């Protein structure tokens, strides 16, 4: 009954969903209007049947899952792979990271008939959902077609637990359709059990986000980028959001008062914000250039990273990194991309999206929390003046990363075991 009510509600609000995706988001970012039929499980002929399907909601999940999926492909080259997502930036990231190794598509909106058509046409061997993108109709349709459903790198905060608990009947539909759930730690496991998931379906693997590494091409790119910046003090503000852009720019102005040669690299979280940040920088009177079209100059004060797929390398050229989504109530973004290059982390107080990572970084002195513009600027200035402190912060962050690796190997073992299970 809960799933029926949910499905009816989705149908009732479907005009609003279409207006939002095609009209509002599509106007701001025309890529939302491309491949639109896929959102209703049409135009799927380019996708292989009997594949292993990985679903990653957007860019962050794609980046986190990339090492896992690449290792799976390396160990299991005969299995066709489909990676689905919800956003154009996620799709672009899939194509940039994998090229022709995989097939990409939008996951259909969770309408009953769309998900049924999607599953029946593609007949995947396995559905692997990254983190907690738990769509009731998709998961139930997979289950009813005898397709195992894995939830990988799963996390469940206390806040999310309370939300799922309020929709207990619908949560039950989801949980009874999950074959195996691989979660970060014992706390997450306990919350899933309190929600009603059987203990024998839960495996604690750690977070695959700790398994991030720099490949040789990325290392070479970082070395080349560093040459362009001529040993200047550099800080990188990655994955920033509206309101936060302004705070970062204001902090950099304060940094320049004591460090006039400092360079800020600001990388907005969403491409539709590139022009907005350029407008803010023009109004700020700071000398800035765009990464996509201009070569850095000695007197450049800000580099606007208006490109996709480069953030991990850009973090590598910084003395320190500020991770966005944290000075506003967005829950923060992944600090481990900076840690992979032994770059220490500054973050605002809103880090609940990475509650399994930040406490360890704080405890091991690999990250520092800042509260406002002044605090951010003061810490940047201090780390520029005291390079030994910046180096120590970055080394500590890298040590945390290294000491918590191993989740990918455990997760691939689970996937391979489930592929061997009768369906």
Descriptive notes:
- The structure is a single chain.
- The chain has 423 residues and is of the alpha/beta class.
- The protein has two domains: 2-206 and 406-419, 3-Deoxy-D-manno-octulosonic-acid transferase, N-terminal domain (Rossmann fold, 3-Layer(aba) Sandwich), CATH 3.40.50.11720; 216-403, Rossmann fold (3-Layer(aba) Sandwich), CATH 3.40.50.2000.
- It is 48% helix and 15% strand.
- The protein contains 17 helices and 14 strands.
- It has helices at 2-28, 59-75, 88-98, 112-122, 136-144, 158-166, 168-176, 186-195, 216-228, 244-258, 274-284, 311-316, 336-339, 358-363, 373-385, 387-403, 407-419, and strands spanning 52-55, 81-85, 103-106, 126-130, 148-154, 180-183, 202-204, 234-240, 263-268, 288-290, 302-304, 320-323, 344-347, 367-369.
- The strands form two sheets. It has a seven-stranded parallel sheet, sandwiched between helices. Strands 10-11-9-8-12-13-14 form a seven-stranded parallel sheet.
- Strand 2, helix 3 and strand 3 (103-106) form a beta-alpha-beta unit.
- Helix 10 packs parallel to helix 11, helix 10 (244-258) crosses helix 15 (373-385) and helix 15 packs across helix 16 (387-403).
- The longest helix is centred in the first third of the chain and has 27 residues, at 2-28.
- The two termini are 26 Å apart.
- The model has no long low-confidence stretch (mean pLDDT 93).
């Amino acid at each position: 009954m809960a799933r029926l009510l949910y499905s009816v509600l989705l149908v009732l609000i479907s005009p609003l969903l279409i207006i939002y995706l095609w009209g509002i988001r599509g106007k701001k970012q025309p890529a939302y209007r491309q491949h639109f039929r896929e959102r209703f499980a049409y135009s799927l002929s380019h996708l292989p049947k009997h594949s292993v399907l990985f679903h990653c909601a957007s860019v962050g999940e794609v980046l986190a899952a990339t090492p896992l999926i690449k290792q799976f492909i390396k160990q299991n080259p005969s299995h066709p792979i489909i990676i689905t997502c919800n956003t154009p930036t996620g799709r672009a990231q899939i194509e940039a990271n994998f090229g022709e190794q995989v097939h990409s598509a939008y996951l259909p909106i969770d309408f009953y008939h769309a998900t049924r058509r999607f599953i029946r046409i593609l007949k995947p061997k396995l559905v692997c959902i990254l983190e907690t993108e738990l769509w009731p109709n998709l998961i139930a349709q997979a289950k009813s077609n005898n397709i195992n459903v894995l939830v990988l790198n799963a996390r469940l905060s206390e806040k999310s637990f309370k939300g799922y608990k309020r929709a207990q009947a619908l949560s039950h539909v989801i949980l009874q359709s999950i074959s195996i759930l691989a979660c970060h730690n014992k706390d997450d496991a306990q919350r899933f059990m309190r929600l009603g998931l059987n203990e024998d379906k839960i495996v604690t693997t750690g977070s695959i986000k700790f398994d991030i590494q720099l490949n040789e091409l990325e290392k070479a790119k970082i070395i080349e980028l560093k040459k362009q910046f001529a040993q200047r003090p550099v800080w990188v503000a990655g994955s920033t959001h509206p309101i936060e852009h302004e705070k970062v720019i204001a902090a950099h102005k304060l940094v320049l008062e004591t460090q006039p040669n400092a360079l800020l690299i600001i990388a907005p979280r969403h491409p539709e914000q590139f022009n907005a940040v350029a407008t803010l920088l023009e109004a700020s009177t700071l000398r800035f250039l765009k990464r996509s079209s201009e070569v850095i100059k000695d007197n450049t004060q800000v580099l606007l990273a208006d490109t996709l797929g480069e953030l991990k390398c850009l973090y590598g050229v910084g003395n320190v990194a500020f991770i966005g989504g944290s000075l506003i109530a967005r829950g923060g973004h992944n600090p481990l991309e900076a840690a992979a290059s032994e770059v220490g982390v500054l973050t605002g107080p809103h880090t609940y999206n990475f509650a399994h990572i930040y406490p360890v970084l704080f405890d091991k002195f690999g990250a520092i929390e800042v509260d406002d513009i002044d605090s951010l600027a003061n810490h940047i200035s201090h780390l520029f003046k005291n390079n030994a402190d910046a180096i120590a912060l970055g080394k500590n962050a890298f040590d945390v990363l290294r000491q918590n690796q191993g989740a990918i190997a455990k997760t691939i073992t689970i996937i391979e075991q489930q592929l061997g299970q009768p369906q």
